[in-house]
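User: Structure please.
Assistant: Input sequence and predicted structure:
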Amino acid sequence: MSDRLVIFDTTLRDGEQAPGIALTPDEKLTIAHQLAALRVDVIEAGFAASSDGDFEAVANIAKQVRGPVIASLARCHPDDIDRANDALKHADRYRIHVFQSTSAIHMERMLRMSPDEVMKSVVEGVTRARGYVDDVEFSPQDATRTDVDFLIAVCRAAVDAGATTINVPDTVGYSTPTEFVELLSKVYAEVTRGRDDIIVSTHCHNDLGLAVANSLSAIHAGARQIECAMNGIGERAGNTSTEEVIMAVKTREDQFGVEIGADTTQLFDTSRLVSRLTGYPVQFNKAVVGRNAFAHESGIHQHGVLRDRLTYEIMDPAEVGQSGSQIILGKHSGRAGFQDALNKIGVSLEDDAFQRAFNRVKELADRKVEINEEELRIIVADTPQGDNAVEFVGMHVAGGNDMTPEATVKLRIDGDEQSFKGTGDGMVHAAFAALRQGFAIEAGLIDYRVVPVTAGADAMAEVSVVIGVDGKTYSGRGIDTDVVTGSARAFVAALNKSIGAKAEEG
């Protein structure tokens, strides 16, 4: 038994069968070149007999992609096998992958064939494929729901007819790891019968979320090929994920004891290319290649990762082609994560200013979920760096339609929280009226402007105001996801400036 694990990537065949995916021959060729850069061992380029487009795609890949073995699927039917060979024959190395259903429900309800007829078609199909090429794979479709004795008999017949790889598909994602290991162990022992030139393979679907677990478990039973698709795409709930298998084997060599030849640094780029061309997004929390795979928001996790990446990361982001660990500013972030974010934008704050800015980030993160670098710069610039006479705490507005707009603002004045109410022609006017009461200042609004500073439904807006007090003007700026609250902050900043100016005048 070889210690080399063959990565058989079926993104372009079984993966493309996912509803809504229809890759052009050129798109398939582009992905195939990237899979070659990833250094998978086998690329199943398509099902050549299924359509003229698929034949063209398989033929193009066979002619132009070098490195991996190029394979095409074919039913145990002469026309399919001939068509596959015609598409593949220009490849440096190629494989014909023949299959036939073997479960009772498939034979009775779908094929309308007896077990003897199925056995005969398998022998004839493998024999015909072997007449073209030495590298022939056989798959008994729906193997995990097939009578075990019949499964063993069919696979033995395929080997005797010339198959060099026996694939055991969990076609409907029905098996569990314990069952699958038991089945694969039996297939390995009774089908290979000690021959080291026969490879046992797996092809697991993810209907119960166990595709990767089943495939990896099979390694312990002697499997030395895993069939998988990038991002786990495929029929129904999808296939075993190529990226997860590769990194599981690389990361836990102590558990699996097999070698792979993949260039793991190509995983992220391959994932994104497949996502872009198929139109299937990669879920944020997808293992290995997801946006959040190396992102940390929890304060405890951020503190640990900043001390030593290994505290919470079992893989190096660079090893899979990701840019690096990400410290995400959100409502769960701690002071260590906030300090790291400030360091990255080159900002240093004294203790009091640091705490005020940190509190402001936490407050906004409750509404925005995540604070990006641009927003952080704006927050820091907007956070008062010194003590103000009056501090804005919060506000509530009501009104609209037939009701007069009313605002209630809460201010901290000399350490004491107080509330003030005001009414106006609109919400912003009402907030300004309430603030004038709180500051006990007769101020007039001279200029008012709102500029969006980020995009999206939770965009932050920057409000700039100019007020007039006793013939002098004072400007203020406020930012928030809510325009009225941002306006209140801008008014407070300007009113505080007027108080400071009066204090300096004596």
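The longest helix spans residues 483-505.
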